[in-house]
Specification:
The chain has helices at 4-8, 12-16, 56-64, 70-77, 131-142, 149-183, 190-219, 227-293, 308-329, and strands spanning 22-26, 32-33, 47-52, 84-87, 92-99, 110-117, 121-126. With 333 residues, it is an alpha+beta fold. The chain has two domains: 4-264, Beta Polymerase, domain 2 (2-Layer Sandwich); 295-333.
Length: 333
Amino acid sequence: MTNQNSTSSISVSHLLDAKPAFSCQLDGKGKAMPLNEQSVPSISQPFWIHLDFAKQETINWINTTHLVPDLIKNELIKSNQISKEIRFESGILVVLKGVNFIPNELPDPIVTFRFYITDNMIISTRHQKIGAISQLQDNLDKGIGPVDVADWLIQISDLISDQVNLSFNSTHNKIIRLEDLVLNQRIFSYKEIGRVRKQLIVLRRLLSPQRDIFVKISTERISWIDDNDRQRLHDISNQQNHYVSDIDSCLLRLASIMEQINSFLAESTNKRIYLMSLFTIIFTPITFLTSLLGVNLAGIPFSQQEWSFIGLILLLVVICIASAIWLKYKKWW
């Protein structure tokens, strides 16, 4: 297992061998300092190295470094992951999922973020670019970034949650627009509802396990997380719990929208069928008379008899009565 002494004595050149996408040392005041040979990780000034796990250099480095416990090396480079939290004596491994919010585009891309965090070092990995990481780097440039590893954990969790919030708000606005269209009895494509519904289901699948992860971290007995940090993690969990409730509500609203659309379509179809029935009623007697008067009597049986035309009419009457009795028997009339 990794301990503080081993991380304190690690050389910066060993870290840079991993070819990190981003690396720095937190200065304890909200800014980041570049790593150099004199840099030493500490609780007040921890290291952060951010890696692309798809690079072969990163894979080789993680498999050979002694900074990461052997049990979680594969977790940092495995592509298909679920949200999880694993506690170790020296730190914790956390896998979080989020979205990169893109305005006016559904569904938003899903991203996975993994990190192993101790009291004086953060090793994070990803393959896709993550909007929350970019925002955290901007915060460090502005001097409002994390001051220690606990603050880093809270800020990155908050930023991932913010991306989900932006995605949910955009989806919610689309639902409001769909509801307005339905109220105005304007029919639109089911594909648009399908895209919105898919985005909501994706967000729910992301949020449901992660709200429990933040609660679990806040209840772990970890030396570098104090009571204030635990409360902030609880607040993030509660916020995500509210998102899940709102998503469930939005799914019900979408179901109601689809019911209203189906009702409009059924009503429209019934009106068309009713209109066609009226035309049929109007033209049926005319059709009957023209057919009757235009019949070729010379071609019917008994055409030489005087009663042949009257017999034809009586036969038609009998057929009509028999048809009416059959419809009545089948309860179609």
